[in-house]
TrEMBL record:
Keyword Membrane: yes
Transmembrane listed as a keyword: yes
Transmembrane segments: 25-47, 59-82, 94-116, 349-368
Name by which UniProt lists this protein: Uncharacterized protein
Domain of life where this protein originates: Bacteria
Amino acid sequence: MGEEISRGDAEGIRCASELSAHVRWLDGITGAALGVLAVASGIYTYLGVSSLLDDTGMLSFAAAASYSIAVSVGIFVFWSYLMRLLPAVRTMASRIGLMVSMLIGSLAIIAMSSWLNAAALAGSAAVEQHLAKTVQEYQASLERANAIAVSAQGLERDVARVRQSFEDLSEQEADGNLSGLAGRGAVFRVLRQKSDELRSLEAQIASQAPLVQAAFAEGNAILSRMRTLTVEPGPVEPRSVQFSEEAVRLAGIITQLRQLSVAPLVSRAAQDLAASVVLPELDGRTGAARGDQQSTIASVLAVLGQRADTLRMAAEAVVAMPAPSDTTYTPISAADAVILYAGNFAPSWAGAIAIDLLPAVLVLILMVTQAAIRSGRDGVRVEETLTLSELRGAMLALREMEGMHAPPAAAPEKVELDLRKATGLKPVEDTGKTG
């Protein structure tokens, strides 16, 4: 059993050593990679900030450059801290604290950088999307206004039908088929009075038809130019200016179409049709004849009231139609457009956020790797985890330390002097002669 545990410990040590070697090699490129990501994010942030600034002078350039540099430095420092500290902590409380810090920092990076990166990546397309949506809104308003105006023009047939009915009645009165008195007496004049009023109203309605058609045609022409500006190649800002001018013209056309609707006019005329009747003097020769005329005029007024109510209800039905929505084109910046139409540019948002938050994946990888390294070395003595190169270095260091603490070797003269003092002998002079 002991042999199996020893073999398992050796396997864990070997795995931990391999992972440590890989981490040391990756440390050499991690800083450079993180720097590249931070610089790339700073460049796109600069482009996004530039789209928000109206001025193009040196002050705006310095402001945009300063902001982008601050973003790059912040991203680099933030992820450098986490790559060093989060994999190194051991307690759960420390890990949770740093994870919360990473979450807060990631949200801050998205707030100060990612949305500007998205504006740089998809700002022009988002503004074009805004233009296209505005065109659709204007088209709906134009078609609605035209539908109401055309429906009002359809009241001309109702007016013509009522007019024709009064003209037919007047012809019958001229033949003596209504009051029994042939000719153009009081009843005939009442009928002709109302038919003339309706003929005048009918002429007014007919005169509006060419104006409605011309306004709708002009509105469609403006819409066509607006669609062209939406998809036209080139910078979007000058196109937005032209688009705004065309939108103002189209808004005027829509207002004109709303004013060309004759439904309110027909409604008021229908109310006046029965209320304003000028009764002529009865011209019957006898009292009975005048009584017949009075009875016929009363019947005519009753019919007139019915026709007027029918015409008024038809006009009010047109007036009650939902009015076209008030559409106003509001110029929008690239950054605001990206936020407003974020759902249409999910890939751009994903790329903008990924370039800022990709180091979070590296932090998690380092956390797992460091945990694996610690797991492989847990329960093993330090001396058992030394590799051959580490052991050789430790031995060399030990020898140097022993050499530093050993007593220095004595000089020969000093050794001889110490011997004479110890033995009491004197030195013998060398005469150059031998015995």
